[in-house]
Amino acid sequence: MYVKRSAMKKVLKGIGIFILVIVGLIVLLFIKAALTPAAPTNYTETVKTGGDLEERYLKNGSHTVSYYEKEVDEDFKKFEVWYPEDLKDTDATYPLIVVLNGTGVKASKYKSQFKHFASWGFIVIGTEEPESWDGVAAESSLDFMLKQNKDDNSIFYQKVDTESIGAVGHSQGGAGVLNTITEHKNSSMYKTAVSVSPTSEKQSAALGWHYDLSKINIPILLLAGTKGDFEMKLVIPEEEMIDMYNKISSPKAMARKTGYEHGEMLYSADGYITAWFMWQLQGDEVAAQAFTGDSPEMANNALYQEQRIDM
């Protein structure tokens, strides 16, 4: 009996060590995932483009970028703001982009994208918000920037162009954009929006992330990918994206970038996202050619499919 019990103890000890090793590996994987950027630092140089304008606006702009943050006692932890460094030395105002996070993808995990937008002359604000679908953190972000714009002790004092505000989000954040521009006190301040791989109406309803597409009354760009079951069957199936698009009555455009899966869509369509904001918020007529005219570039870009433009 003693021998059997000793053998059993050894077996249990071995199992215990094995479990600890597995748990340790899982913890390490989570740590690695938390530290790994969701948007590669060099994506503006590596993402494939299929048009001159997409290529032009995927590259970084001419502004050197600075960073400011303000910690707050909220679930989203802090406001994170990227902005053109020359903002400090001019009386000009700058358009504002409010960014909504995808699930598990906090602003600190895709800094390169914030920097990219800011390099084109935008003030860009994000948070560490883990649940962005309702647009609450985005509303707080806009409130914060509006207060900063009135605070003569702030570097953003009278620097925000309050007539040129946009919202962009990916995945859960894409759904969050739809609530941000329709359901909050400051919703009417948004001039335009971009929703990237938004969780579809059907899937959002199952998750309790309700939004009402009929309330959208500003120009909006919808984008998604075409690769992988997660993107194509779960998050935003093709027919559901078309149905969502058809329910929007305001000026709109949509497309799916071929060969890119859900996570990659966070940054891989940035050429056209930036062009959209440059047109809508800065009046850039060159950028407008990606979406307007007799032959809009996005509509003829071979790297995209299901293009629709109703401007």
Structure summary:
The chain has 311 residues and is of the alpha/beta class. It is built from 13 helices and 9 strands.
Low-confidence stretches: 18-35
Structural class: alpha/beta
What is the CATH class name of the largest domain? Alpha Beta
Please name the CATH architecture of the largest domain: 3-Layer(aba) Sandwich
* Count of alpha and pi helical runs: 13
Count of the separate structural domains: 2
Question: Would you kindly provide a written description of the structure presented here, covering whatever features stand out?
Answer:
Helices cover 41% and strands 20% of the residues. The protein is an alpha/beta fold and 311 residues long. It folds into 2 domains: 1-36; 42-310, Rossmann fold, CATH 3.40.50.1820. Helix 6 links the parallel strand 5 and strand 6 (192-196). Helix 3 crosses helix 11 (270-282). The longest helix is centred in the N-terminal third of the chain and has 34 residues, at 2-35. Mean pLDDT is 90; it is low at 18-35.
Topology:
Elements: H1 2-35, H2 43-46, H3 52-58, E1 65-71, E2 78-84, E3 94-100, H4 111-119, E4 123-127, H5 136-150, E5 160-170, H6 172-180, E6 192-196, H7 201-207, E7 220-225, H8 229-235, H9 238-247, E8 252-257, H10 265-268, H11 270-282, H12 285-288, H13 297-300, E9 304-310
Parallel strand pairs: 3-4, 3-5, 5-6, 6-7, 7-8
Antiparallel strand pairs: 1-2, 2-4, 8-9
Helix pairs in contact: 3-11
